[in-house]
Design a protein that fits this description.
single chain; 9 helices; 47% helix
């Protein structure tokens, strides 16, 4: 390896981080096309001039197995080898690949443009449990946390006493006295 070159293991670490991005079932061994484009965008492999998203898609299709929808790290490496001379024109294949590795190492998927929670006064007003009245108020405890099923359902009282009877549970004592 040349001086100042990056180890393939470091590239693989980044590959795994991007491979699992946005996919809960992903193992990090394979990467889908969407995440391949994401790693290329986030690591500035796609520069809009020499390498475009179309180039990246074409290379992805080229390196993956015919029926597969994902690529392994080996295929990913192959794809980078294809993209490197395009991205760094006028450099040798090895030199270009090393520079490409340099772009990838230590990178993690950025969450640019992730949807933020909208802060709207209307939503705040509707979700403020302190403003609930009547029957709806019963669904929350003092802290404003929902009671769940207990707050939603009328749980039948099968004690044998009529509702709101204050002397429930006193029958036995009354019978003894008689």
């Amino acid at each position: 390896m040349a001086e100042g070159s990056v180890s393939v293991a470091e590239v693989e670490t980044s590959f795994q981080k991007f491979a699992v991005h946005g996919d809960t079932k992903a193992t990090g061994k394979e990467m889908n096309g969407k995440n391949f484009v994401k790693i290329c965008k986030d690591c500035h492999i796609i520069d809009g001039k020499n390498v475009t998203t179309t180039d990246v898609d074409i290379v992805f299709s080229k390196v993956k197995a015919k029926s597969a929808r994902v690529i392994t790290f080996e295929q990913f490496d192959q794809a980078l080898t294809e993209l490197a001379p395009k991205r760094f024109k006028g450099k040798s294949k090895e030199e270009a690949l090393q520079q490409l590795y340099g772009l990838i190492v230590g990178k993690e998927p950025t969450n640019l443009g992730v949807t933020k929670v909208a802060k709207a006064p209307a939503v705040d007003r509707l979700t403020d449990t302190a403003k609930y009245t009547g029957a709806h108020k019963e669904r929350f405890d003092v802290s404003g946390k929902g009671k769940g099923k207990a707050g939603r359902e009328d749980i039948p009282d099968s004690s044998g006493y009529v509702a709101a009877y204050k002397g429930s549970g006193t029958y036995e004592e009354k019978v003894k006295e008689a």
